[in-house]
Design a protein that fits this description.
Mean pLDDT: 75
Order of helices and strands: EEEHHHHHEE
Number of strands: 5
Strand content: 5-15%
Radius of gyration: 24 Å
Number of helices: 5
Largest sheet: 3 strands, antiparallel
Strand order of the largest sheet: 1-2-3
Length: 170
């Protein structure tokens, strides 16, 4: 006699992602974030955790970010996109004039010079050249010179100490 109930399965829907235990003891979550337009193959993003619960939580966060459009593959992100995210998320807690100044500097100086450069292709030389050109043409230069001082060895000490190679001090 045939059963009226369809057969139940424990499978998740296609594209929902999956979690499995690796041979090294960690848990791995996999989620398909789209397809490669050149090859047509699925592009996958992986998350890892020490426990299954931790991995599932990370996978859910990734799925939410991809589905809401917040997630951008880091290899595809440009300096301009990063600056858009930064201004939207981090300028909310500063004074209005400070936010206005930051946005003006980004729009007039940083984006024209580096906005189209992908983050993975950005070099130290590119960022240093644009910073030097920017500081030479703005009031930033005077404030920067006031706040930067030299120590006994002739290296810079100040707000950006340690970011760049030591430069000769005047």
């Amino acid at each position: 006699m045939p059963k009226n109930n369809p057969r139940k399965t424990n499978r998740a829907p296609q594209g929902a992602g999956g979690v499995c235990k690796r041979s090294d003891g960690r848990w791995q979550g996999t989620y398909t974030i789209g397809t490669n337009p050149g090859t047509g193959k699925p592009m996958k993003k992986y998350v890892y955790g020490q426990s299954e619960k931790e991995c599932v939580n990370k996978l859910k966060a990734l799925q939410a970010a991809v589905d809401s459009g917040v997630f951008i593959e880091p290899s595809c992100m440009t300096v301009g996109q990063l600056l858009n995210i930064w201004t939207a998320e981090y300028l909310g807690g500063v004074k209005p004039n400070t936010a206005y100044e930051y946005k003006a500097h980004i729009k007039n100086h940083i984006k024209p010079a580096l906005g189209a450069v992908r983050l993975q292709k950005l070099t130290h030389t590119q960022s240093r050249r644009s910073t030097t050109a920017f500081s030479a043409t703005t009031a930033f230069s005077k404030n920067h010179q006031k706040s930067t001082r030299c120590d006994a060895q002739g290296t810079k000490a100040g707000p950006d100490a340690g970011l760049y190679q030591a430069e000769s001090c005047r």
